[in-house]
Design a protein that fits this description.
The protein has one domain: Aminopeptidase (3-Layer(aba) Sandwich). About 25% of the residues lie in helices and about 35% in strands. It has helices at about 10-25, 35, 40-50, 100-115, 130-140, and strands at about 1-5, 55-60, 65-75, 85-90, 120-125, 140-155, 155-165. A seven-stranded mixed β-sheet has the order 1-2-3-4-5-7-6, with helices on both faces. A hairpin with a 2-residue loop joins strand 6 and strand 7 (about 155-165). The longest helix is centred in the N-terminal third of the chain and has 14 residues, at about 10-25. The protein is globular. The protein starts with a strand and ends in a 20-residue tail after the last strand.
């Protein structure tokens, strides 16, 4: 297995795997398969995403076959450039439980560590996806929030857990311990 940063030449393979992911696990992704297939020029859009600043999509290959993907996306707004997010994590079913997901996540985390601005990585995971949550916890992620009814698929509500991995502490952190910090009139 080889993990590499995807580029425009991988866009078609990525799109094929993305559609598989949306069909296989519609409850795990915000985008639906139906919405995805309606996109105009989806492969060109994917290729553009691959060259967008702060967007890093990694692929796991078994020989020439793309078997898994994950995207690390650094926030672009000035006040939140210290954050990155993990999106679109997927490993094809036949290759699950073989360490592919762990290898992809480690590559994304290691990339984030090379970007001095990034202090933390956030992700959201379906609350019932125990395999994914176990992997994320092993990698150091901690739950910081729970969202009931995060989204619906075919009338069924799904909950999300929000997780964070702190890579480094920012400069000038303010530790608020219940003091009056001067908001509004008191």
């Amino acid at each position: 297995m080889e993990i590499k940063l995807l580029d425009a030449t991988d866009a078609e393979r990525y799109w094929k795997l993305r559609l598989e992911a949306l069909k296989q696990n519609p409850e795990a992704f915000l985008t639906s398969y139906q919405d995805a297939i309606k996109r105009e020029n989806p492969i060109e859009q994917v290729a553009r995403n691959f060259i967008t600043e702060g967007n890093f999509t990694f692929g796991a290959f078994d020989k020439e076959e793309l078997i898994g993907v994950v995207t690390l996306l650094q926030e672009s707004a000035e006040k939140v450039r210290h954050r990155a997010n993990i999106f679109a994590m997927y490993v094809t079913p036949e290759k699950q439980s073989l360490g592919v997901g762990k290898a992809l996540m480690e590559e994304a985390i290691n990339k984030a560590k090379t970007i001095e601005e990034i202090e933390k990585i956030n992700l959201s995971v379906m609350a019932t996806n125990e395999k994914a949550k176990k992997l994320y916890r092993k990698l150091g992620f901690k739950v910081y929030g729970f969202e009931e009814n995060a989204f619906k698929v075919n009338g069924i509500s799904y909950h999300d857990e929000h997780m964070v991995l702190h890579l480094r502490t920012g400069k000038g952190n303010v530790n608020l311990k219940g003091e009056n910090i001067g908001f509004g009139d008191h």
